[in-house]
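Explain this record to help learners:
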Amino acid sequence: MTLNFLIAPDFPPEYFAGWHFMNAHLQKSLGINIHLLLPASTDEEQQAIDHNKVDIIYANPFDAAKLIREMGYLAVAQPINRYDEIVIAAAQNSNIKTLADIKAGMKVLATENYDVKLLALRLLEAVDAQENDLIWEKCDSFIAVANGLIKKRGDVGLFLASAYKKLSKITLNNLQPLIESKINDLNHVILIHPRQVDLLGMLQQVLCQLNQTKEGLVILEDLGLADGFSKVNQEDAELLIDIIETLRD
């Protein structure tokens, strides 16, 4: 038996190797073959899900809520002290210095990460900026968003806060953050398909004990998740769904 473990395509490139180390550790600890899937886009991720190829997934909170609610995926674990926040930024030399400077007709550079866009729209409500008031241009990555701002291809850009902070020092010096969300309730979540329910307890145990061994701490450091994982129960999953539905309304 070989399981497929899919990683949401919004992690910074420097963690690519870390997921391979994590996958090798899971195979060894669980005694099963696990194939790592690293889709290049959310479209590729969705195709794998639609074709029923995903047994375990590290999903953003919006996808996690949908997978739990609509496909019966079971929550396993979530990173400790690693929340999914977003940054809205502009070029350092831009006339846009605050959210209030964002006006109708301005171009927003964004990846295809729906969760980032949805959180940004909630923040923009404070200055009466609606989705239809703005011009949206898709970028392939958060690095592309940053480069687009610096090269004046757009007025503002949307980033996962974790990705924004991992940009090079030179890039950050050419950008200015307008706002960073502080929700502190949304995390990526590791889920398992209901057909693999017998593995849930073992997988949960392995993940939550990573921060208790030297090998595990190295893996977590390579993933940028130094504090490790904590168990997610049904109540936690229902709270996540409630938060996501509130943001969508």
